[in-house]
Write a structure and sequence with these properties.
The structure holds two protein chains of two kinds.
Chain A lengths: L1 H36 L4 H7 L15 H9 L2 H32 L5 H10 L5 H12 L3 E4 L2 E4 L6 H4 L6 H13 L2 H9 L4 H9 L4 H16 L3 H6 L8 H4 L10 H35 L2
Antiparallel strand pairs in A: 1-2
Helix pairs in contact in A: 1-14, 3-14, 4-8, 4-11, 5-8, 8-11, 9-10, 11-14
Chain B lengths: L3 E10 L2 E11 L4 E5 L6 H9 L6 E6 L2 E2 L10 E4 L11 H5 L1 H5 L4 H14 L15 H14 L4 E5 L7 H18 L2 E6 L2 H7 L2 E6 L2 E6 L1 H6 L4 H6 L6 E10 L3 E6 L2 E7 L10 E6 L5 E2 L7 E10 L3 E8 L4 E7 L9 E5 L6 E3 L4
Parallel strand pairs in B: 3-8, 3-9, 6-7, 7-8
Antiparallel strand pairs in B: 1-2, 1-4, 4-5, 9-10, 11-12, 11-14, 12-13, 14-20, 15-19, 16-17, 16-19, 17-18
Helix pairs in contact in B: 4-5
Classes of the chains: A mainly alpha, B alpha+beta.
């Protein structure tokens, strides 16, 4: 009996790992294809797509595509712009959305539930529907900066950052997480004499690692992949982010090798960011799954 | 140390009134226990004293100062929660010192007070651990330590032992009792466990449906319950209640009987009865003694005998279908199915005009 059941378990384990490996390969292959192709000249790259060679570093391998990509477009500037815009948006978003959620979750005020419903309802509004009104709005907004007073936010960093800081999904994530925190902790802090600000900074935020990671990664992906909004509000190269920069490689003749090199470069920040927060991200997904 | 005074305290959620006019006095250094079944409002009442729930009407005074609208931290109270409510991201030391840190106490003062609390609770060796490395009892100790360093006028305990296992609960119960002796502070303690109430309290307040049923010293409530609810709530096994008919009333006694009970005179303690009415006779299982048919006053048949070691609990069915429990000496054995007769001292019985 024992032998049979252990055989069964072994077999099941093998099957499970086979399936998981297959899924992993399916997900990894496009990335492998991208990286391998970035080392190949266009002709070979196109020829290799018909065989397994597309995924292997074979043939005429060089870094020429990378040099050419940097020649064709200010790749460093685009990556810098995207990392700056994304980083600042993520930071501001974590701070402001968690504060809004703190209020929704812990403070008592009139109209709280209705306002929370409205905030959550904004999740179903696609960005395309508000893009034009938002464009008209930001084009007329005033600003006081180092250069003095100005009107219109077009061709700036702030136009790519500020409209994206607060969003329903991030607030909703924080609210849900905060509501699962033991209420006694908050009440104990109040009895101890902590102000709401102290409860936020000393109790709630230190316990919010998982949701901070989740919200940060989701926001990062949205911001790093921005295309439509920067395309319409940024015409100057100085403020252009990576996804809009991709357009440089489709002008005149499409250089596939350079595109792959460019894509490889702009993927690095995403992977780095994910790897840093991976553990907390998985922990948060696991905890939301287990909690009943 | 302080006096706490509750006057006609009420609490409503919308139209539902959960606390219906409560008057309670807690004297300097007194240990008061709020006890009652689930939903009786005892925790709500404690949270109102703490300032975690608004007071709908009435007055709460601590040391003669009205506290109704003050923040929890301004009331001079410290609270120990059922879930311990210690912060998982801080060490024990940081947890205990949390209130001091918040109030920007000096380093020396902090160290001194934490050391003092740790000494009282014998947890010096735990100070640098995290809550996840502590057992339930140790966590509760941390929560109590956090209360001690605040040096409060009044300690509030909200069912602090109900998350602990039975053995640990007894240890911690004794420790809390000892803590009260050592600190001499006023304490208000909420529990649904009558054993905790009886052992710890200077004064027990029995609550039901948001009203005080009776307040007084533990043995006073045990021996002289004001009403059926208090009589049935305190004591284990709980008091036997028999429906009886009143035959005669005189200055001190009423004479009652029923089919299983021979007529007896029971002191009515000032409660008013009319001849012919149905009343309830209460007698604690411990006060029933087996006897023969002639001298026995209560007659029934043994259903079940449970030997608990220290005592033997007998389930008896009475003639009119009621059930009776008798707690007898450890070596008493009555075989199931046999007739049982009991005698008791009528002065130890209680007669209530209401029926259940």
């Amino acid at each position: 009996m024992a032998a049979i059941s252990s055989d069964n378990r072994g077999l099941r384990l093998v099957m499970r790992y086979t399936v998981l490996t297959l899924i992993a390969i399916i997900f990894v292959f496009p990335l492998v294809f991208m990286v391998m192709s970035s080392f190949k000249p266009d002709l070979q790259l196109l020829r290799d797509t018909s065989s397994i060679r597309a995924f292997l570093p074979v043939g005429d391998i060089s870094l020429n595509n990378y040099f050419d990509a940097f020649d064709r477009a200010p790749v460093g500037l685009f990556v810098f712009n995207s990392v700056l815009v994304t980083g600042l948006t993520v930071l501001f978003s974590l701070f402001l959305c968690s504060m809004a959620a703190f209020s929704f979750a812990f403070l008592e005020w009139k109209g709280r539930n209705i306002l929370l419903s409205i905030v959550i309802a904004t999740l179903i509004v696609p960005f395309e529907t508000i893009a034009i009104p938002l464009l008209l709005m930001v084009s007329k907004l005033p600003w006081i900066g180092f250069e003095g007073f100005s009107v219109g936010w077009l061709n700036t960093y702030r136009v790519q950052i500020i409209p994206w800081i607060a969003d329903g999904l991030t607030i909703f994530l924080f609210v849900q997480y905060f509501k699962d925190l033991p209420r006694d902790l908050i009440e104990a802090s109040r009895v101890e004499g902590a102000s709401w600000w102290q409860i936020y900074t000393k109790v709630v935020m230190p316990l919010s690692g998982p949701v901070l990671a989740t919200a940060a990664i989701l926001k990062f992906l949205v911001m790093y992949n921005q295309y439509l909004w920067p395309l319409i509000v940024v015409q100057e190269e100085t403020y252009r982010p990576v996804m809009v920069g991709l357009g440089y490689f489709f002008q005149l003749n499409t250089a596939w090798g350079e595109i792959m090199a460019y894509l490889t470069i702009i993927t690095v920040p995403v992977l780095a960011f994910y790897l840093v927060l991976q553990r907390a991200f998985i922990a948060s997904i696991a905890s939301t799954g287990v909690k009943g | 140390m302080a006096q706490v005074k509750l006057r006609d305290i009420r609490k409503s959620y919308g139209k539902v009134e959960v606390i219906k006019g409560v008057d309670i006095d807690v004297d300097d250094g007194e240990f008061v226990v709020f006890v009652g079944p689930s939903g009786c409002g005892k925790s709500t009442l404690l949270r109102m004293i703490a300032g975690l729930e608004d007071i709908t009407a009435g007055t709460l005074e601590i040391d003669g100062i009205r506290m109704n609208d003050l923040e929890p931290s301004k009331r001079g109270i410290a609270m120990v929660f059922q879930s311990y409510a210690i912060f998982p991201h801080m060490t024990v030391r940081e947890n205990v010192a949390f209130g001091l840190t918040i109030n920007k106490a000096g380093k020396a003062e902090k160290a001194e007070k934490v050391a003092e609390a740790a000494r009282i609770l014998q947890m010096e060796h735990l100070l640098d651990r995290r809550p996840s490395e502590l057992s339930g009892g140790q966590r509760q100790r941390v929560a109590i330590g956090r209360a001690i360093v605040r040096d409060p006028k009044v300690f509030l305990f909200d069912e602090p032992l109900s998350n602990l296992d039975a053995a640990l609960r007894m240890d911690m119960r004794m420790e809390i009792g000892k803590l009260h002796q050592d600190l001499g502070a006023s304490m208000i303690y909420v529990t649904h466990d009558q054993v905790e109430a009886m052992t710890l309290a200077d004064k027990i307040v029995v609550l039901k449906d948001g009203m005080v049923m009776q307040a007084g010293a533990p043995m006073e409530l045990y021996h002289e319950p004001d009403n059926l609810f208090v009589a049935g709530f305190l004591g284990s096994p709980s008091m036997n209640f028999l429906e009886v008919t009143v035959d005669a009333v005189n200055a001190d006694n009423v004479t009652v009987h029923n089919t299983a009970l021979d007529p007896i005179d029971v002191p009515h303690k000032g409660r008013s009865f009319t001849v012919g009415q149905t009343a309830t006779l209460g007698i604690r299982p411990q006060y029933l003694h087996p006897s023969d048919q002639a001298s026995g006053k209560l007659h029934g048949k043994v259903i079940l005998t449970e030997r608990l070691g220290s005592e033997t609990v007998i389930d008896v069915s009475l003639a009119e279908g009621a059930k009776l429990i008798a707690a007898l000496a450890e070596d008493t054995i009555l075989a199931p199915g046999t007739a049982a007769h009991f005698e008791f001292d009528p002065n130890q019985a209680h007669i209530f005009p209401e029926t259940r």
